[in-house]
Design a protein that fits this description.
The chain is of the alpha/beta class. The protein is about 45% helix and about 10% strand. It has helices at about 20-55, 60-65, 75-80, 105-120, 145, 150-155, 190-205, 220-235, 240-255, 270-275, 280-295, 305-310, 320-325, 345-355, 365, 380-390, 405-415, 425-435, 440-450, 490-495, and strands at about 1-5, 10, 95-100, 125, 160-165, 180, 205-210, 260-265, 335-340, 360, 395-400. Pfam families: O-FucT.
């Protein structure tokens, strides 16, 4: 049988199989596809190299590409090579440091930074920290549920070796028991070098079962203080899920104009712990007392609420916060984001605040109900969202100077001394009582409130040092002055020592 082709070439199918013709066409198409893939791969690599060596070279071009024709976001990221990792620090590890953090999100955040410093100082290998799951909040979140583990490990590899878990030979399964202890609070380098380092020679693995305030605020060498900041501001990055939702919250708020983040710390755990019941009913006061007795680590049981309030040791109530905001000059059109968990007394206690400031929002009211369930019942993940919004806000106002208030204040200082109004609660209680009993007219009250807070707006100042009283010193993470300026400019920026007390 003969088959005549278009070029009058005869092919005998009894000698050359007819199947060769379609197979040859398939090979041609396969070659074309492979060539296209190879060309596109080379182009992408060329773009990546150009971006690496000349980051601004392609900016003008890519900015002119309409969004509708750009590749998806995930693909855009793949087109750019990730920043090169810093070279790992080469050192002989003296042992493994395992830590179990205690407290809420921001207490644990500061503790994680401190533990990196301890590992760096003693040339240890740090195991990714364990987070508190047994406190009042009972949050089951692991480190990787809140922070980007890979980024944490990789971004600090030039300072500290960090691993996700201990080698198998140090596991309980093989009968190994790590040496557990709580370091002495507010300890300096000498304590860790002389008393803690020898323990690793003996035990190989030391487990710190408490990590809050275990490193001194002051007297630490400059490079370690700067590393504290690097861990806090760069190494501890929230997970993509938290960051995506946090940025969405910020974008929604910013689209409506400037906003105040009010950290209204009028929550059940704070009131039970502090014994503050001002404005509560008799039944609510009893409920808080029962809760205080239910937790053995809240050691102080019998508390005189009004006495503590007069000392400035209670969070402002929602009603008191309303008057203070009005006195500071915020009007009814001010957009206020409530950065907190559930307010004790619920909407009843927020009534006066809502009446004075109708534009009050919370994450639960801004976001679609379908966006929050994965974070609910995880207090630290919810607190991470509030943290992001508080740092981004135009003005940050905490009603209690606790861990979140301090860490947010320090973050805002690092970002250029953004406005943070830190209420002087002791003075405010005095002024509030005078105004509410009719002794101090509104105009005089408002003027006095503004005068009290003129120098409490997050301006630069020196961290207060009190020898032999580290608990009374200014907190490092609230004012990391070593990381806020360089060289001789520091003196011009922060000035002489500041002795003001924050409550």
């Amino acid at each position: 049988m003969e088959v005549r082709s278009e070029n009058n070439i005869q092919v005998r199918c009894d000698k050359i199989p007819c199947q060769l013709i379609p197979r040859t066409r398939l090979q041609v198409w396969f070659f074309r596809v492979c060539s296209s893939i190879l060309l596109w791969t080379c182009l992408i690599q060329l773009l990546a190299v150009c971006e690496l060596w000349h980051p601004r070279l392609l900016t003008g071009l890519t900015n002119r590409i309409p969004w509708t024709s750009r590749p998806p976001l995930r693909l855009q990221h793949s087109l750019h090579s990730p920043p090169p990792l810093p070279p790992p620090r080469n050192y002989r590890s003296n042992g493994f440091l395992k830590v179990s953090c205690n407290g809420g999100l921001n207490q644990m955040r500061a503790a994680i930074c401190d533990m990196v410093i301890v590992a760096r100082l003693l040339n240890l290998t740090l195991v990714v920290p364990e987070l508190d799951k047994t406190s009042f909040w009972a949050d089951p979140s692991d480190f990787g549920d809140i922070f980007d583990v890979s980024h944490f490990i990789d971004s600090l590899r030039d300072e500290v070796r960090i691993i996700k878990r201990l080698p198998k030979k140090f596991s309980r399964k093989y009968g190994f028991q790590a040496f557990r202890m709580s370091p002495v609070s507010w300890s300096n380098e000498k304590y860790y070098l002389e008393q803690i380092l020898p323990l690793f020679s003996k035990h190989k693995v030391v487990h710190f079962n408490r990590t809050d305030t275990r490193l001194a605020n002051n007297g630490i060498q400059l490079d370690l203080q700067k590393l504290r900041c690097r861990v806090n501001f760069q190494g501890l990055k929230f997970t993509p899920e938290i960051e995506t939702l946090g940025y969405k919250l910020v974008r929604i708020l910013q689209d409506k104009g400037p906003f105040v983040a009010l950290h209204l710390r009028y929550e059940m755990d704070m009131l039970a712990f502090s014994g503050c019941t001002h404005g509560c009913t008799v039944e609510e006061a009893e409920e808080l007392k029962r809760l205080r007795y239910a937790y053995p680590w809240w050691r102080e049981k019998e508390i005189m609420s009004e006495e503590r309030r007069q000392q400035g040791l209670c969070p402002l109530t929602p009603e008191e916060a309303t008057l203070v905001l009005q006195a500071l000059g915020f009007d009814k059109d001010t957009q206020i984001y409530i950065a907190s968990g559930e307010i004790f007394g619920s909407e009843r206690r927020l009534a006066s605040l809502r009446a004075a400031f109708p534009h009050i929002v919370k994450k639960e009211t801004i976001l679609d109900p379908a966006e929050l369930p994965q974070f609910q019942n995880h207090s630290s993940q919810m607190a991470a969202l509030d943290f992001m919004v508080s740092v981004a806000s135009n003005t940050f106002i905490p009603t209690y100077y606790g861990n979140m208030a301090k860490v947010v204040e320090g973050h805002r200082r690092y970002l250029g001394f953004k406005r943070s109004i830190l209420p002087d609660r002791k003075k405010l209680v005095e002024l509030l009582d005078l105004h509410q009993n009719g002794t101090l007219p509104w105009n005089d009250f408002a003027l006095a409130v503004r005068q009290v807070h003129e120098k409490r707006m997050g301006q630069p100042f020196r961290r207060r040092i009190i020898p032999d009283k580290p608990k009374e010193e200014d907190y490092f993470y609230a004012n990391p002055e070593e990381c806020l300026c360089e060289g001789t400019k520091c003196e011009d920026l922060v000035g002489p020592s500041n002795s003001s007390t924050l409550h």
